């Protein structure tokens, strides 16, 4: 199963990466094992989002930039509003990265 490394740039992914870097620097963990942990993190995030998240969200905003490269869409919205279960949340700007999930099963 292929995975994307998108979730490594999330808050939890960045914290994991920093912690692994510290452990490698301290000699507690080998670099090879740290890479294996990150690969497992990518797989686990993909599986968890696929199987456990059932909510749907509506997003409205001003489309500032969009891009399609290597089967990955990137959208940057300004004055965006997220609506989940009729509860709107306004944000200044948001970057959305979307990949074709069919690529994960190849």
List the helices and strands and how they pair.
Blueprint: H1 11-25, H2 31-52, E1 58-69, E2 72-84, E3 87-99
Antiparallel strand pairs: 1-2, 2-3
Helix pairs in contact: 1-2
Computed structural class: alpha+beta
H/E topology pattern: HHEEE
SS strand fraction? 35-45%
Question: What radius of gyration results from the CA coordinates?
Answer: 17 Å
The portion of residues assigned to helices is 25-40%
Strand order of the largest sheet: 1-2-3
The whole-number mean of residue pLDDT values reads 88
Q: So how many helices?
A: 2
Uncertain stretches of 5 or more adjacent residues = none
Largest sheet: 3 strands, antiparallel
What's the shape? Answer: elongated
Spatial gap, N to C terminus: 7 Å
List how many beta strands DSSP finds.
Answer: 3
- Indicate the multimeric state: single chain
Key structural traits:
elongated, 3 strands, 35% helix, 106 residues, 2 helices, alpha+beta
Question: Could you explain how this protein is built, in words?
Answer:
The protein is α+β, with helices and mostly antiparallel strands. The protein is built from two helices and three strands, in the order H-H-E-E-E. The chain has helices at residues 11-25, 31-52; strands at residues 58-69, 72-84, 87-99. The protein has a three-stranded antiparallel beta sheet with strand order 1-2-3, with no helix packed on it. A hairpin with a 2-residue loop joins strand 1 and strand 2 (72-84). Helix 1 packs antiparallel against helix 2. It is elongated, with a radius of gyration of 17 Å.
């Amino acid at each position: 199963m292929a995975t994307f490394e998108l979730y490594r740039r999330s808050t939890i992914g960045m914290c994991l990466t920093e912690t692994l870097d510290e452990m490698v620097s301290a000699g507690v963990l080998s670099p090879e094992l740290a890479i294996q942990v990150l690969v497992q993190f990518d797989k686990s995030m993909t599986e968890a989002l696929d199987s456990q998240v059932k909510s749907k969200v509506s997003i409205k905003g001003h489309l500032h930039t969009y891009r399609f490269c290597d089967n990955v869409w990137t959208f940057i919205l300004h004055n965006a509003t997220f609506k989940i279960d009729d509860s709107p949340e306004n944000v200044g700007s948001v970057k959305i990265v979307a990949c074709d999930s069919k690529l994960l099963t190849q």
